[in-house]
Amino acid sequence: MNGSDGLLGALRELRGHLDLGLFPLAAGDVEGDRRALRELTGQLDDYLIPRLSAIDAPLLAVVGGSTGAGKSTLVNSLVGADVSEPGVLRPTTLAPTLAVSPADQAWFTAQHVLPGLPRVTGQGRGEPGTLRVVTVPALPPGLALLDAPDIDSVVTANRELAAQLLAAADLWLFTTTAARYADEVPWGFLRVARERSTAMAVILSRVPPEALGVVKRDLARLLEVNGLGGTRLFEVPELVLPEENARLPRPAVAPVADWLTGIAADSQARADVVRQTLSGALESLATRVPALADAVDRQHAVAGELRSMTDAAYAGGLATFDEGMLDGSLLRGEVLARWQDFIGTGDLMRTLENRVGRVRDRLVALFTGRPAPENELRVALESGVGALIRDSADGAAERTLESWSSHPSGRALLEETGAVATVRLGRASAGLPAKAEAAVRGWQGYVLGLVSEEGADRRTTARLTSYGLNGAGLLLMLAVFASTGGLTGIEVGIAGGTSVLSQKLLEAFFGDQAVRTLTVKARTDLRARVAALLGTEATRFTSLLDAVQPPEGAAAALRAAALAVRDHQREIPAADRRTALPVGERQERLPGAPVTLTLPAGGTDAAPDPLDRPPGAVPRPADREGDER
Q1: Is there a single domain that holds both residue 536 and residue 395?
Q2: 383 within domain boundaries
Q3: How many distinct structural domains can be found in the chain?
Q4: Which segments show compositional bias classed as Basic and acidic residues (predicted)?
Q5: Taking the model in full, what pTM does it have?
Q6: Within this chain, do residues 258 and 336 fall inside the same structural domain, yes or no?
Q7: What Å distances lie between residue 239 and 59, 173, 174, 234, 247, CA to CA?
């Protein structure tokens, strides 16, 4: 029976959305979000898509559990061959070992399942990051056993690999010991199995003879309490072995072996296991994918906060420029000196109120009699405006850097950018001076155009011919850089007087209303040019977000993909689904095994313990295999 093309297509569509870097920013529990993304991506690649592509493929049973649980010894004992290397030193399983039947070798050596792990065959332990495939003639076709690393390994990569392998399994053989069955780490995995309805059996190993049955009943009680009642539970006694890597006697593992043999021999039994795990994994997407989508929304929200910080800082930079444009500060220093040269007297300001007419006459003489030093004034004005732009940009960059550094997400992003680049971000860009110079020159050309356009009638043209177009343009530029409201020459000091004189001279050319209109136009144009420059400067920060932020619509696409998967789940035949049954009943309906060997009593399902003892009340013998270190 093949999986539905519609369901496969929906899963592949979902997988395509998970290729994106969805969680680059430190937003919320971002490490948990990234871990959930890796787990979901791995399960799609390692299990869901391959299994639906070949629903009748051999069953993969993963033997997992805690340190010292004897997983490798159990696998060797079950298959009757030394395929995994047990030992006292931890970690023992450096690379997972997959024991397969000769009939199934071609399937598992190809990249059908766990495609991210390169295959290694032959003798040896295998290198970390590989999957060692060993052919075992005694294994029946249709079933493969995978010895996984410890779920609580001191090596992070081993723990992550163990979780990945368990997520890729059709059937969990979860192994724990009499000494450690109540530890929290195993129960975290068992609860995941419950949430995803994974087909599972629990093997309680290394049970001292005096605790046989007692520990098993307590473990059965804990399974019941944790919503896993009815889980198939096997008990393996602790035995004295002749050597460290010896296999357990056949009778000790026969109940487990016979149960697995029965599943392998019955195609319907295998199908029941597969469909239980498959249905549970598919149903888990209904909560896991929307949770990822919510996390993507958090990423966008944090990115929006950082963008708002940047916008506010550069809006402040533009406000700084506005203040400098209106407070008269530009009309001091070098600009004032060049203005005085331009007018032709150093005593101009003392006689501003009663000598405007005489100054106009002096200007006529300057324009018509000898070249005026207007170039020096234009250059000084250009330099002053450029300096104000750079100062505004420096302040905006510094404020943005401070804001980002105070935000966890911004701080993390800056750290990834690097110390040198971060220092550079705290100042205006190296290319800003040249851009500012070009912007100011463009503005000066715009102002001259305004003056020329306004002086188009004959009488005004005659005045401009007398005074000079460039001279009148400079007067308008000077008028831009101070507020004229309420200014009266001597009362506002030298800078204000300069502005007032410029305005009065312009009024003599164009009239009061025209000068006000020209000044507003010139000021608005300059402000727009500076705003564009600061906007470009701000992109040095926002481009960092653009490079990592999830694309718009990513969260909506994930939610839509999850809905599509849910809609297509009906394509799995209803008679094969276990979704309406409680978890415990689903476990009980896993197939039992025919007895093919003469075995001692034991290995049956345990009844719940009538005593409500707290976890750990049963004495737990020491684990002779040793702890991982």
Answers
A1: yes
A2: yes
A3: 2
A4: 573-589
A5: 0.73
A6: no
A7: 30, 20, 20, 16, 10
Residue whose token pair is 């032709």 = 344
- Give the chain's radius of gyration (CA, Å): 40
Q: What is the DSSP string of 515-527?
A: HHHHHHHHHHHHH
Q: Are strands 143-147 and 232-237 parallel, antiparallel or unpaired?
A: unpaired
Look up residue 534 and give its two tokens.
Answer: 């600061």
User: Could you tell me if 118 and 36 are in contact, meaning their C-beta atoms sit under 8 angstroms apart?
Assistant: no
The reply to whether 256 and 308 lie within a common domain is: no
Mean of pLDDT values over 495-516? 63
Q: What pLDDT does 245 receive?
A: 67
pLDDT tens digit sequence for 106-163: 889 888 788 888 888 876 666 777 888 999 988 889 999 999 888 888 788 888 888 8
Residue labelled with tokens 């220093």: 333
What amino acid occupies position 229? G
Task: Please name the residue that has the structure tokens 């800082």.
Answer: 313
If DSSP states are collapsed to H, E and C, what string results for 330-399? HHCCHHHHHHHHHHCCCCHHHHCCCCHHHHHHHHHHHHHHCCCCHHHHHHHHHHHHHHHHHHHHHHHHHH
Which of 237, 265, 293 is the endpoint of a domain?
Answer: 265
Q: How far apart are the first and last CA of the chain?
A: 46
pLDDT at 482: 63
